[in-house]
Amino acid sequence: MTTFTLKKTYASLPRTVRGQPIVINGDPKEKNFLYCNGNNVFIRNINDTSECDVYSEHSKETSVAKYSPSGFYIASGDVTGKVRIWDTVNPEHILKIEHSAMSGVIKDIDWTMDSQKIIVGGEGREFFGRAFTYDSGNTVGEIKGHSKSINSVSIRQGRPMRAVTGSEDFTSIFYEGPPFKFVCSKSEHTNFVNCVRFSPDGSKFISGGADGKLFMYDGKTSDLIGELGAPKAHAGGIYSICFNADGSKLLSVSGDKTAKIWNIEANSVETDFVLGKQVTDMQVGCLWQGDNIITVSLSGNFNYLDPASPASPKKIIKGHNKPIVALTTSPDGSSFYTASSDGLIVSWNAATGESDDIKGKGHTNQVMDLALGGDVLVSVGIDDTVRFTPTGSGEYSGDSVKLESQPRSVDFKENVVVIACLRHVLVFDASGRKLSSLQVEYEGLSVSINPGATQVAVGSKTRIHIYELSNGTLTEIRSEAAQEVAALSYSPDGAYLAVGSKGKVMMFDVQDWQESIGGWGEQHTAKVTSVQWSPDSRRFASGSVDSHIIIWEQGKFVGKKPSVKAHPLSHINRLSWLDNNTIVTAGQDSNLKIWQVSD
């Protein structure tokens, strides 16, 4: 019996928005850290980020997640104001309870030290924060006094219990409790208060604002102690702060593209990290957990910092935080390339998950498809261009080639590149020289070149078009009726053509063009987005908008076929085989997953 086993998840980076802070949170055992993107909450091992668990039970986009002090539960909030409390012990992450805490996006969450009560802050119609018991949802006081959205919440982990919130109304508010009640408002900031945090021992709390300032207050009384780095701690807005374990130092990150470690007692900067010069190098989140000092760039990249070597991060975790729309693998399956809707192209080590983005000026809009041939990566985008990039350099080279119409799909075999466009089918050689341009009356959606590069299949909204390829010129030799052919793939031995259309998978014998599995058993319930053959031509896999992978093999699986819901609540945009028993899938959820297929 053929089964699927999830080997690895190469997780999405956090979704970031310019000018907005994000929250990442560590567990009490200092093993994992948490963040959100899309409908998912990601639990990643802080030392080996290829170890990842994904919680996918929110029906709407998640916004923040935090461990309870006990470590047994995680509270996660979403853009509709719902909070889900779920356990960390079982792999199924059993839901304890769900609360409709607010009427808008939840921006921050914190727990009381006994893991019994929660305060959330964010946007709402009637109020901007709420305090409640985690199990019953009963209100435990009032979080009031702000006139605009609450950006940040922190609860003192000690007695007497205190809480503080930071808001877009330029103030921080201090509360006693529980039940929590308003004590006073702090008005030292002249712009948004983006982050407030109590020190681990509760002796003080610090606020960081969009005005670039850091103010320190007494943790019991809220009296102002002083200002760090006056007149400004950073040249740009401060988005996040985090204490070290003993509270003697503070990490702050800013839109000025720097991170700083402060000696609190000396009121001085111990280490200054300059993390780039591009807009995407703005620093919007941070975490100090044990010996790990992590910041988050606007690009979504995680920067692991070492105070002993501040010139550059000791490690950068890269990837995508937008939907992954294209995927191609190397012939030996050791590496693959992906592209996302923002035009970013990333190379991956298939075994380790290590990744790097292609540097330089690339596509200015979404990449539609990728194809790899030898040491050249070919990419086509909505900017109506094709690029030929040497894989060894890790950088774009030369100029892009403008195309006659918008490209949708590309294939690369035997030093020949064929691009299916909305009104043309184009042929190039491996150096980027155009060999021919065929104007067509249909919209090209997909393309595949057969082994030997003597035949090309192009899918459109109503048909499959088969061309003879000779000396760089295409001549149509037949066509077959099919609906919305978004995926095509010749088998590596050249004997078959697999076709993915509107909810249907077909396979043609290229000798007589008879459909081999027409109507054969269970099919996808939505549009098929990708079909790819295993290297040995024994079987092929299909991926769909219905989130499933299905394995197809001639003469087997008549009726129910091996399938798995690979990306819950997400489309599968692309899949490919790394070897005869390993598949990589790329989802609308920005995740990559490696699947073992066993007989």
UniProtKB/TrEMBL annotation:
The answer to whether the entry has keyword Nucleotide-binding is no
User: Per the UniProt entry, what species is this protein from, by scientific name?
Assistant: Aplysia californica
Taxonomic classification: Eukaryota, Metazoa, Spiralia, Lophotrochozoa, Mollusca
Q: Which UniProt keywords apply?
A: Repeat, WD repeat
What is the designated name of this protein?
Actin-interacting protein 1
WD repeat feature ranges: 55-96, 186-227, 231-272, 317-358, 521-553, 579-599
One Pfam family per UniProt: WD40
Gene3D superfamilies hit by this protein: YVTN repeat-like/Quinoprotein amine dehydrogenase
Sequence similarity: Belongs to the WD repeat AIP1 family.
Any keyword Acetylation?
Answer: no
CDD domains assigned: WD40
Q: Which InterPro entries match?
A: WD40/YVTN_repeat-like_dom_sf, WD40_PAC1, WD40_repeat_CS, WD40_repeat_dom_sf, WD40_rpt
